[in-house]
Design brief:
Blueprint: H1 2-8, E1 24-26, E2 33-35, H2 42-51, H3 65-71, H4 79-94, H5 101-113, H6 117-125, H7 132-144, H8 148-160, H9 169-180, H10 183-195, H11 202-214, H12 218-227, H13 233-245, H14 249-258, H15 264-276, H16 280-293, H17 301-313, H18 317-329, H19 336-348, H20 352-361, H21 369-381, H22 385-397, H23 404-417, H24 420-432, H25 440-452, H26 456-465, H27 472-485, H28 488-501, H29 506-518, H30 522-534, E3 543-548, E4 551-556, H31 565-581, H32 597-605, H33 608-619, E5 626-630, H34 636-648, E6 653-656, E7 661-665, E8 668-669
Parallel strand pairs: 5-6
Antiparallel strand pairs: 1-2, 3-4, 3-5, 6-7, 7-8
């Protein structure tokens, strides 16, 4: 037989693994087994016990079962154990012995656990009269290697042979049902577990809850959870994860609060849930609570990765640094995934230098697609298009195949930096070289790329040639380009498309209204005002926040309710004189045209980002970097003012708006006024 020949090619003599010295020697040439210099160790005594029956003249197949059991390991690819297992198998065959179903089950488990699924399958298929135990072994083997379809097929065959599944069978089958989202099959398996009296077995019950959760049947999952007489902590964690996945954070909170014993999975699930649902502040508070209240729970790399995005949601750079410091203290920052998450956090909080440092600490062999995409996107969002392109090209040279996210970052970087020809060339490469079909976001980037460069006709033609319906991001990019290059004809087309796609976005109405006002088309201005009022559209309030000493301070446009409003006003009132002396002229085109020039300047002076910067100047020592986040696009006048403030006060100012970062220093902006 082929299988026997394969085994006969094994080494003829092999030292047993657990004992550390040349003790047991198994010969496939003369069918002999011997041991030498037996040390007095528990491992040696165990091996002497299991090998002694093989010294008999006529050993039985059952004599080999304890050896295969002893060689079964938890870690695959243990070559020493695998070689010894093959030798024992060969010894058995050369004695003319063939495994029974019981012994075969032990052999299947051994081979599967040591990385040889092929041999496990050969043994399984050669048993004429299999048992439930043998089927459990091969089902476990398939699950171990992620062969979920084969797990289900084997389960069906087991059922067809009228072999009774037990508490070992159901968890593996239910896990496969969950991975394939086979809810109906999972329910059938649930029914069978009821008939054999195993529904309330803790492991079967936990597997059922996990299956229902992953198949998004939270009602049945919760019902079963309430009925279980004894609950595994995994069942609590599964239910929490399920409710978080569908956004029912309040239910997850209630379950989490009822847990008497929480492990790191429980804490991490809740922290991750807050982060995923935009509740960054709660995620950070819960992380701190875990460190302070539960000394037995130690955060792992998954916990760190779960909490870091919360810092970007709340624009909390200082707290991000503290988490980084904590991770470094316990060695978790050595994990490539954590370094990638740190790079993303720093980039989104405005510290591109720190993002680069974290990215460069990752060993080249450990830099996966996510790490490269993180850095490409970071450069793009900070306006460093050339660096985004070079990082993309370096990634390709390293052998990493780009995906849709890679091209979104690349094209966005080209758009923000005016790299039109390079961006268009890579857009063509998506399909021609990498066989990737452009998505809506890629078309939006290219339309933005062309529109910023004033190539509005090409942008409009590209929209009409898109294989899918253009959405708000595409038409919005075209409208912004028309505003910049004062093309009213195409602006009208884009604006009226946007009025249909996002009727509640007041910014589109105001932008077109101001373009009409610029050329004296007051009737059209009034018509737009009528449309705005009839539809009840309200202007999106601008808001900005700045973090000082670990605390975020929020400012709304025109809002003077802050405790330091008087000081902020005084500072802003003195600015125009200093700035005008340096050449500043207020750009009132960014406010409505139906108010006086004086009122326009007042409206500009109370934009939220200016209030935040004034607060920062008042409450930080010289040379402190001011970091502001705004919920809308920064207006042209505020952009100009920031440049003057950075020059007059010798401050570095970093503003993150809805589109990108602007780094102001020495009177210049990193965008080069191309934004």
């Amino acid at each position: 037989m082929i299988f026997n020949v394969t085994l006969l090619h094994c080494e003829s003599r092999l030292t047993a693994f657990p004992c550390g010295r040349a003790i047991f020697q198994l010969s496939t040439e003369n069918r002999e087994l011997s041991w030498h210099e037996m040390p007095t160790t528990p491992a040696a005594a165990q091996w002497r016990t299991v090998l002694k029956p093989l010294l008999e003249e006529l050993p039985q197949p059952l004599s080999y079962a304890p050896i295969f059991q002893l060689l079964t390991g938890q870690q695959p690819q243990n070559l020493v154990k695998l070689k010894l297992g093959r030798q024992v198998h060969a010894h058995m065959l050369l004695r003319g012995l063939h495994p029974t179903a019981f012994v075969a089950a032990k052999m299947v488990s051994m081979y599967a656990s040591l990385g040889d699924l092929h041999s496990a399958l050969l043994i399984f298929h050669r048993i004429a009269h299999p048992s439930s135990l043998l089927y459990n072994s091969i089902i476990r083997a398939y699950t171990l290697y992620g062969c979920v379809e084969e797990t289900i097929e084997t389960y069906f065959r087991m059922h067809w042979l009228d072999l009774r599944p037990d508490h070992f069978t159901f968890p593996f089958v239910l896990k496969s049902c969950a991975q394939l989202s086979l809810l109906e099959l999972g329910k059938c398996t649930h029914g069978l577990s009821l008939r054999v009296g195993l529904e309330f077995d803790m492991y079967v019950g936990t597997s059922l809850i996990d299956m229902y959760v992953k198949c998004r049947d939270l009602s049945d999952a919760h019902k079963l959870f309430d009925e279980l007489p004894k609950r595994d902590i995994s069942s609590w964690n599964s239910l929490i994860t399920g409710y978080i996945r569908v956004g029912m954070v309040h239910v997850a909170e209630d379950i989490f609060g009822r847990m008497s014993n929480k492990n790191i999975v429980s804490w991490t699930a809740m922290i991750s849930g807050y982060t995923q649902n935009g509740l960054g502040e709660r995620a950070l508070c819960l992380f701190n609570e875990m460190l302070q209240k539960d000394a037995d729970v130690k955060p792992n790399w998954v916990t760190i990765m779960s909490v870091l995005p919360a810092c970007t949601h709340s624009a909390s750079l200082e707290r991000g640094r503290l988490i980084h410091k904590f991770a470094s203290g316990v060695g978790l920052d050595l994990n490539p995934s954590v370094q990638t998450a740190l790079a993303a956090m720093y980039a989104k909080c405005g510290s591109l230098v720190d993002a680069c440092l974290c990215f460069n600490r990752i060993h080249p062999k450990n830099k996966g697609l996510v790490a490269w995409n993180t850095m490409i996107t970071a450069y793009a969002s900070h306006g460093y298009g050339a660096e985004a392109v070079s990082t993309f090209e370096e990634m390709v040279r390293s052998g990493i195949q780009p995906d849709a996210v890679s091209f979104t970052g690349l094209l966005s970087g080209c758009s923000h930096s005016g790299l039109v020809d390079i961006g268009l060339a890579h857009f063509k490469f998506m399909t021609a070289v990498y066989s990737l079909e452009p998505r809506h976001e890629h078309y939006a980037c290219v339309v933005d790329l062309l529109s910023r460069a004033g190539r509005l006709l090409e942008a409009k033609e590209l929209i009409y040639d898109m294989p899918m319906q253009a959405g708000p991001s595409v038409w919005g990019a075209l409208l912004a380009g028309c505003r910049k290059h004062r093309n009213l004809e195409i602006a009208e087309i884009a604006a009226w498309k946007l009025f249909v796609l996002e009727p509640e976005n007041s910014g589109n109405y105001i932008l077109l209204s101001n373009m009409y006002a610029d050329v004296g088309m007051w009737e059209e201005v009034n018509n737009l005002r009528v449309v705005l009022k009839s539809q009840g559209v309200k202007k999106n309030p601008g808001s900005s926040w700045i973090e000082i000493n670990g605390k975020a301070h929020l400012f709304l446009g025109g809002d003077m309710s802050h405790l330091q409003s008087k000081e902020i006003n005084l500072l802003l009132e003195t600015l125009p004189e200093k700035m005008r002396a340096a050449g500043y002229i207020p750009d009132t085109s960014f406010v409505l045209h139906d108010v006086s020039e004086e009122e326009k300047e007042h409206n500009l002076a109370t934009h939220s980002e200016k209030l935040a910067i004034a607060f920062g100047l008042l409450n930080t020592p010289p040379n402190t970097v001011l970091r502001v986040t705004k919920n809308l696009r920064i207006c042209g006048d505020c952009h100009t003012v920031m440049k003057f403030i950075s020059q007059i006060y010798m401050r570095e100012i970093i503003v993150r708006d809805v589109n990108r970062f602007h780094h102001f220093k020495y009177g210049q902006c990193s965008c080069g006024d191309y934004w």
